[in-house]
Each structure stands twice: as C-alpha cells, then as structure tokens.
Amino acid sequence: MTTRDPHEARHGNSAFTLGSESFDDGQTLPAAQRGAATGPGGSDESPQLSWRGAPAGTRSYAVTMFDPDAPGHGGFWHWAVLDIPADVTSLAAGAGSRHGGGLPRGAFQLRNDGGSAGYLGAAPPKGHGPHRYIVTVHALDVAQSGLDAGASPAKLEAKLGPHTLAKSTLTGIYERR
C-alpha cells in the first residue's frame, strides 16, 4: 500500500513518498516484521518498501529502521542499508536478510544494534508499552555514503544529514504484553 507521510519533503509539485505492501503507516507491524524471539510468525523479515518522487540530484538512497522508544539512551537501530543506486525505487520483502542477497548491486547493510548485519525485527520488552518502528528512506546527493559495513548506525545518521535531499517515513507499531 502506498502511504503518504505527513512530514514528507516537498520539491516543486512532487512529493517524495514511501509505501509498503507489508504494513500501513501507523498500524501494527505484522508478525513477519517482528523478531523471531517474539513468538509464532516472528521471522525478522524486512518489509517490502517502494518510493517515488525523489528530487532532482538524487544519486543514491539509504533505508533505516529505528525504535525511539527502546529502553536506555538513544533508541535502537534495527536496520540500515546504504548505497542503494538512484535507479532503484523498491526493496522486496526479505531483502534485508543477514546475507543481504536481496539487495541491489552495490548496496550493503550496517550492523544493527543487536550486533548483526541485516534486518532485526521488532521485539520490545514485554510490558514496556507500544513502540514505534520508524522506517525512513533518504534520497541522497552522493552515490556512495563513504562508510563501510563496520560503521555504527549512529555514525550513519550524522553522515546522512548533510547529504539528505529528501526523506520519507512509515511508522509501524508493536507492543508485547
């Protein structure tokens, strides 16, 4: 489903938008996008994503998923993909596997805050309340991020800032009771 983000960047008459066939903005994440440890159906499968309306000058994309509600300081990075070529406008469900075999040529993943490469599904602590899982696609003015797979997602955030032409988000919600 295509979902418009109320905070999407606008350039001229077009808007940079992000959508997903896996979940709707503001809705509960399906089992496939939850962590394997959360119970039946949790499979750490990255969501399907598609975007359109990138501004002129876009040379690559980055995709991130962040939980700002995680305990401790700074939230929790679940996924970061860099150096997605500018002619790619979607990722299939499961593209963020630990081996990254579903990513486009040249793209790579950073280690998540769980310490492994690839997508790590939603798995908030039981009884901690609802958590927001913010998926963001950044349209960048550089073809390569200048980072390598060993960089932390926190470094990515600082690196993306000055190179982001536009970004669009989807937010999934999940709570373990």
CATH architecture annotation: Alpha-Beta Complex
Strand content: 25-35%
Measured on Cα atoms, how large is the radius of gyration? 15 Å
Overall shape? globular
Number of helices: 1
Low-confidence segments, given as residue ranges, are: 1-13
Alpha-carbon distance between the termini? Answer: 28 Å
Q: pLDDT average, as an integer?
A: 90
Helix share bin = under 10%
Could you describe the largest sheet, including whether it forms a barrel? 5 strands, antiparallel
Number of separate structural domains: 1
CATH superfamily membership:
PEBP-like
**SS-based class:** mainly beta
Number of strands: 11
Q: What is the H/E string?
A: EEEEEEEEEEHE
Q: Give the spatial strand order of the biggest sheet.
A: 9-7-6-10-11
The CATH topology name reads: Phosphatidylethanolamine-binding Protein
Look at the structure and give the CATH class.
Alpha Beta
Task: Report what the structure shows.
The protein is mainly β. The chain has one domain: Phosphatidylethanolamine-binding Protein. Helix content is about 5%, strand content about 30%. It contains one helix and eleven strands; from the N terminus they run ββββββββββαβ. The strands form three sheets. Strands 9-7-6-10-11 form a five-stranded antiparallel sheet, covered by helices on one side. The chain has a four-stranded antiparallel sheet with strand order 1-4-5-8, with no helix packed on it. β6 and β7 form a beta hairpin. The longest helix has 8 residues. It starts with a strand and ends with a strand.
